[in-house]
Design brief:
Layout lengths: L6 H6 L3 H12 L3 E2 L1 H7 L5 H13 L3 E13 L2 H6 L2 H11 L3 E3 H7 L4 H11 L3 E6 L2 E6 L1 H5 L6 H11 L2 E2 L5 H9 L4 E13 L1 H9 L12 H6 L26 H15 L3 E2 L5 E3 H4 L31 H13 L14 H4 L2 E3 L4 H10 L5 E10 L11 E10 L5 H14 L5 E8 L2 E11 L2 E11 L1 H4 L8 E7 H9 L12 H6 L4
Parallel strand pairs: 8-11
Antiparallel strand pairs: 1-7, 2-6, 2-7, 3-5, 4-5, 9-10, 11-12, 12-16, 13-14, 14-15, 15-16
Helix pairs in contact: 2-4, 6-8
Bound molecules: phenylalanine (PHE).
The site of phenylalanine (PHE) has 12 residues, from strand 14, strand 15 and strand 16.
Length: 510
C-alpha cells in the first residue's frame, strides 16, 4: 500500500537535481523541452534533466510528455546527381528512339544497374519487354514517354527530402516503402520530442518554497573519519518510491531443485553415480530379475533401438548365472521363472526405462558393504504425454547396502528425504516389483487425488546373488518432475519444460 505523502514529506525527499529542475521549470513559466531546461537549471546534460524529471514524475510533481516522430532523409546523394536507375534507362531508351536492345542497356548502365532499372521500368509500367529476332527489347510505354518531361512521385519526394528530412506523416507510405526497399537510398531518423511540465502538486511544492542545498547521499569512510558527517545534510530515503522490478540471471528452477536433491543425499553420506542412457535389456531388466515375458518389456512400454538393435553381453559367466537364476533360481534357493531364458532378448538395445539400472551397475562395479549411492538422471518410457506423464523424465534413485539395513530403515530414509524436501504428508502402500521383496509404493495427495511418486523395496536374492551379497540391499526410485510439481503447485508436468521466459524470470529463488 502506498501511503500518500504530505507536501512537506515530498519536499524533504527531493534530491538536489530534483530541486534544481523544479526551480528551472518555474523560471521558464511551468514547462519546457529538456534541452531548454539545461540552461535554465545549469545542468550539463539532457540525461541529468531527464533523470530528475522521471523521479519528479514518479512523485507526481511533473508530467513528461513524449512524442515520437519518424522522419526520412536521403542517404545516397549520388542518386540525386545521377538520377534513379529507371530514369537513366528512360533517357537512354529515348535517346535511341524509344526502343532499345536489352544488351545495349547493359552497356549504358554498367555494373548491374540495368537489371535494377528494368525491374523498376516494368513495375512502374514505363516500358514493355518485347522479344524480336531472338533478342529482347525495351519499348517505352505512353506512361514512360510522359515521364520524360516530368518528375515521378518518388523523385519528387526525394527532392523534397534533400531540402529537409520529411516526417512520416507528410509522406505517402507506399512511396516510402519502395524507397526503403532500395538499398541504402534513404535513412530513417527517429526523434523523440519531450516536454516536461509542472503539475498542480509541483506548483504547490514550489509555493512552499524550495531551497537549493547541497546534500550528502552517500556515507563514505572519509565522511565518518573526518567527522564531516556531523554537519552533513543527508537526503531522506523514500522507501515507498517506485523502483523497477529487477530480474537477475539465475539457475533454472529444475536445476536448483536437482541441486537440493543432491545435497540432501550427499549430506546423508551418499555418493553419486550415473551410467549410460543406452543398455542391453540384460542390465535394465534381466539383471533385475524382470521375467522375459513381463509386460514392461513390451514394445508399448519400452523404446527398443534399431541402431544398435543388439548390444552383445560379453561376460559369459554372468550370463550363465543370470540365465540359471531366471530358469531355475540357480543357487539362490528361488525356483526362478521357469521356461527358457533367451540371450537374444537380453541383448536387445534399449533406452533405460529406470535408473535402477544405475543401481545394479554400480553394485556390480563395487559390491562392498556398507555402500550408499544415489543417482539423479534421465529415463525413457513409451508413455503418452498428459498432465502427469512424459516419455522422458528424471528419477531420484538410490540404494543402501548395510548389515543393519531393513524395511523400516527404508521407510524412514524415504520419510526423511521427503520431509527435507518439505513434504510430510506421504502415504506408503505395499506394492510389487520383480526385483524387490518386500516392495512399497509411495504416494502423495495432490490436486485432489493420490499421485504416485515412486517405488522402493529390499532387493531379492535373485538380484544380488551374482555379486555374492548376502546383506540387505535397500533400493528406491522416485519421480523428480512430480516432486517439482508438488513443490511449485504445478498441475501440468509439461509446464516444467516449456521455456516460458516470463515465468522463469518471475520464479522466486527465495
Ligand atoms: N524402478 C522402479 C520404477 O521405476 C522404482 C524402484 C526402484 C522400485 C528400486 C523398487 C526398487 O518405478
Amino acid at each position: 500500500m502506498v501511503i500518500p505523502m504530505s507536501i512537506s514529506e515530498i519536499l524533504e525527499g527531493l534530491s538536489y537535481n530534483e530541486r534544481r529542475l523544479l526551480l528551472a521549470l518555474q523560471s521558464v513559466g511551468g514547462g519546457a523541452a529538456p534541452a531548454d531546461l539545461i540552461s535554465a537549471g545549469n545542468f550539463e546534460l539532457e540525461v541529468e534533466v531527464m533523470g530528475a524529471a522521471s523521479w519528479l514524475a514518479s512523485k507526481g510533481l511533473v508530467t513528461i510528455d513524449e512524442q515520437v516522430t519518424k522522419s526520412f532523409a536521403v542517404a545516397d546523394m549520388s542518386v540525386m546527381e545521377n538520377g534513379l536507375p529507371e530514369r537513366k534507362a528512360l533517357k537512354a531508351i529515348d535517346s535511341v528512339g524509344g526502343k532499345m536492345d536489352m544488351a545495349a542497356l547493359a552497356d549504358a548502365l554498367p555494373g548491374g544497374e540495368d537489371k535494377i532499372a528494368v525491374g523498376w521500368l516494368k513495375r512502374k509500367k514505363l516500358a514493355d519487354i518485347v522479344a524480336e529476332d531472338g533478342s529482347k527489347f525495351l519499348v517505352l510505354t505512353d506512361l514512360g514517354k510522359g515521364y520524360l518531361s516530368k518528375e515521378m512521385d518518388d523523385e519528387a519526394l526525394l527532392a523534397r527530402m534533400v531540402v529537409a528530412p520529411i516526417s512520416e506523416k507528410d509522406a505517402d507510405p507506399r512511396i516510402i516503402k519502395d524507397l526503403k526497399g532500395r538499398q541504402g537510398m534513404i535513412v530513417e531518423d527517429i526523434v523523440t520530442k519531450r516536454h516536461i511540465d509542472l503539475t498542480d502538486l509541483g506548483k504547490e511544492a514550489l509555493a512552499e518554497g524550495i531551497e537549493l542545498k547541497e546534500e550528502t547521499v552517500q556515507v563514505t569512510d572519509n565522511l565518518i573519519q573526518s567527522g564531516r558527517w556531523k554537519d552533513a545534510e543527508f537526503r531522506k530515503y523514500d522507501v515507498q518510491t517506485f523502483a523497477p522490478a529487477f530480474y537477475p540471471a539465475k539457475k533454472h528452477p529444475l536445476s536448483r531443485l536437482a541441486a537440493d536433491v543432491k545435497r540432501i543425499f550427499t549430506d546423508m553420506g551418499f555418493t553419486e553415480y550415473d551410467g549410460e542412457y543406452v543398455h542391453p535389456a540384460f542390465w535394465d531388466l534381466d539383471m533385475l530379475f524382470v521375467p522375459q515375458d513381463h509386460p514392461a518389456r513390451d514394445l508399448q512400454d519400452t523404446f527398443y533401438l534399431s541402431n544398435p538393435a543388439k548390444i552383445p553381453v560379453t561376460d559369459e559367466k554372468l550370463l550363465e548365472t543370470v540365465k540359471n537364476i531366471h530358469e531355475n533360481g540357480g543357487d539362490t534357493g528361488s525356483t526362478g521363472w521357469g521356461g527358457k531364458w533367451s540371450r537374444e532378448m537380453a541383448e536387445q538395445g534399449m533406452l533405460r526405462t529406470h535408473t535402477t539400472v544405475n543401481t545394479i551397475e554400480s553394485i556390480a562395479m563395487d559390491p562392498k558393504v556398507p555402500s550408499k549411492v544415489f543417482s539423479l538422471s534421465r529415463i525413457f518410457r513409451k508413455e503418452s504425454i498428459d498432465a502427469t506423464h512424459l516419455p522422458e523424465f528424471t528419477q531420484i534413485e538410490g540404494y543402501i547396502i548395510d548389515d543393519n539395513a531393513n524395511f523400516d530403515m527404508l521407510i524412514s530414509i524415504i520419510r526423511e528425504f521427503y520431509a527435507k524436501m518439505g513434504f510430510d504428508q506421504i502415504r506408503i502402500r505395499p506394492a510389487y516389483f520383480p526385483y524387490t521383496e518386500p516392495s512399497l509404493e509411495l504416494e502423495v495427495f495432490f490436486n485432489g487425488k493420490w499421485m504416485e511418486l515412486g517405488g522402493a523395496g529390499v532387493f531379492r536374492p535373485e538380484v544380488v546373488a551374482p555379486f555374492g551379497i548376502d546383506k540387505p540391499v535397500l533400493a528406491w526410485g522416485f519421480g523428480f518432475e512430480r516432486l517439482a510439481m508438488l513443490k511449485w503447485g504445478i498441475t501440468d508436468i509439461r509446464d516444467l519444460y516449456i521455456s516460458d521466459v516470463d515465468l522463469l524470470k518471475k520464479n522466486r529463488i527465495l
